[in-house]
Amino acid sequence: MFRVPGERVSLSDVKAEGFDVRMVYSITDCISIAEKTNKDVVFFSIGFETTTPATASVISTRPTNFSILCAHRLIPPAMEALIKMGEMKIDGFINPGHVSTIIGERPYEFISKRYKKPQVIAGFEPLDVLIAVYMLAMQILRGEARVENEYTRVVRPKGNEKAQQTMNDVFEPFDCSWRGFHVIPGSGLRLKKNFEEYDARKRYEDELSSLENEYKEPEGCRCGEILRGLVYPEECPLFGKVCTPQHPVGPCMVSREGSCNITFRYGER
Fold it and tell me: What stretch of H or E contains 81?
């Protein structure tokens, strides 16, 4: 998040101007900072179901000068949104292993039942992905649509129930806007009412009221379409010219996991 561009600047730019922005390994590091200072400390809490339990597990032991800016998201609602938008033909899904470690197999099942889409939960090694593709192909050949688990060495059918309970104790889902998708019902997470005093959006409501509520893509950036699988990174007019890993315009170029960053490093230009 340090280098992800906002409408005008990134957190990296703000730090260069002299403001106190620090990179931390986890939320526990941020709490340690809050305990050692009288300043108000805000943790930018991001990620999918993989990172959410860590946030939830410490929120009940937070100091009074600590709050979180929550940007946690849920994967299954986004998968359904991709199908319902109807912009591309989806034959099946390879489901993320790290998310599935937490939520297990069951939260994906409605997609196969309702939309007749085969799914395979996979690990991240090349062989994991290859086997997942094979398993999907076999489901399609047999006319099946169900959730299979290739990543059995890590993912259990019910997932990590303790982590799920911790999440449910602290967070609740709500309708949330996504880059390139607009609003996806029940796809975001926010703190429940009994934890609202540690919600940075509530604590700094007056300061935030002057900001635009809806993010606008930089002119020419096609990151939203890339995320939805509608165009390749090379089709963006900014790719490799204005937008590079050293000077990213869109988030797809920031992370080493981003489509544009990967294409820039390994693609032919």
Answer: helix 75-85
Phi and psi at residue 61, in whole multiples of 5°?
A: -120, 25
d(CA 77, CA 260): 24
For residues 166 and 70, membership in a common domain is answered with: yes
Pairing relationship of beta strands 147-149 and 119-122 according to DSSP bridges: parallel
Residue numbers of the chain with a pLDDT score lower than 70: 212-215, 269
Is the domain of 143 the same as that of 167? Answer: no
130-178 pLDDT tens trace: 999 999 999 999 999 999 999 999 999 999 999 999 999 999 999 998 8
The answer as to whether 239 is a domain residue is yes
Which residues have CB under 8 Å from 159's CB, separation 6+?
100, 101, 102, 103, 104, 105, 106
> What are the structure tokens assigned to 206, written together?
């007056």
Do residues 185 and 241 both lie within one domain?
Answer: no
pLDDT at site 255: 87
One domain, residues 168 and 50? yes
| Residue 58 belongs to a domain | yes
Same domain, 143 and 83: yes
Q: What is the mean pLDDT of the chain?
A: 92
